[in-house]
Amino acid sequence: MKKVEAIIKPFKLDDVREALADINITGMTVTEVKGFGRQKGHTELYRGAEYMVDFLPKVKIELVLADDQVERCIDVIIKTAQTGRIGDGKIFVFDVERVIRIRTGEENEDAV
Question: Which helix (H) or strand (E) holds 82?
């Protein structure tokens, strides 16, 4: 099993969620996050004063998947979240050693 974490632009969340549902991936955790990479924030004007916005709003999607679902999931996220502009985000893939469903005690793929 693998854990896929994708950091994307907030306005792409619904499109990504729907595209993942189309390939039968429905369980996910979504968190509103802030950060920056090469984008390094930007300046904004507020009441005549210019100020630096260091951390930009993003959304983090977390999914735990069977190994055979990972590549398709990554492809769908890239295709759906990509705008071609800086700040489109990143995808991270981690090994998952064990998953346990608290309610039933089921483990690993049965728990996902």
Answer: none
Closest CA to 12 of 42, 55, 54, 57: 57
The tokens of 95 are what? Answer: 């090994």
Q: Token digits for 6?
A: 């994708």
How do beta strands 49-53 and 89-95 pair?
Answer: unpaired
In angstroms, the CA 85 to CA 83 distance is: 5
What is each CA distance from 107 to 5, 9, 57, 102, in whole angstroms?
A: 21, 33, 34, 9
Q: Which helix (H) or strand (E) holds 106?
A: none
Amino acid found at 14? D
Q: What is the pTM of this model?
A: 0.84
- The model's pLDDT over 46-55, given as tens digits with 9 standing for 90+, comes to 677 766 667 7
